[in-house]
Specification:
alpha+beta; 165 residues; four-stranded mixed sheet; 5 helices; Metallo-beta-lactamase, Chain A; globular; five-stranded mixed sheet
Length: 165
């Protein structure tokens, strides 16, 4: 699977473009719909995944769905992934784990050397702690693709979690 990243909007949100077997998924179309459409217009876009509904992750969602005639999906033909609910940053936070590729798109749940804020509407410290405990059950070698900033390894981030408990 090919993973491409577009940085969009004033908050420099990561919009990911996943392509496998000539099918494409868009993750978190946060802003700059024209930029995303131009990047994907020659691709076979079959759906959109959203990690949570904060404005910087869905700002271009309606335009993208309309242009490609797709909607948000929980399953997509040709892509095998697990949807993991991990509230804390927001009540609807979720990650998408592609086990075969050992990659996870985690939105604003986990960042490189940090975790998502819990002081925004829908955030909850107790939920974040439960989500962090739960994600520790997953393998250390998973590459995390966060909603902002660079990718990281889950094993590396697990070492940082101790500062939050």
């Amino acid at each position: 699977m090919k993973v491409e990243r577009l940085i969009v909007g004033d908050l420099e949100e990561n919009c990911y473009i996943l392509t496998k077997n000539n099918k494409t998924l868009i993750i978190d179309p946060g802003d700059e719909s024209t930029k995303i459409i131009n990047f994907c217009k020659n691709k076979n876009v079959i759906g959109v995944l959203v990690t949570h509904h904060h404005f910087d992750h869905i700002g271009a969602l309606n335009e993208i769905c309309k242009y490609f005639n797709v909607c948000e999906v929980e399953m997509a033909e040709g892509f095998d992934f697990e949807v993991i609910k991990n509230p804390g940053h927001s009540s609807d936070s979720k990650s998408y784990y592609f086990k075969d590729e050992k990659i996870m798109f985690c939105g604003d749940f986990i960042f490189f050397n940090s975790i998502g804020r819990t002081d925004l509407p829908g955030g909850n410290v107790k939920d974040m702690m439960s989500s962090l405990t739960m994600i520790c059950k997953y393998p250390d070698d998973i590459i995390l693709y966060p909603g902002h900033g660079p990718s990281t390894l889950l094993g590396h981030e697990k070492n940082n979690f101790k500062y939050y408990f």
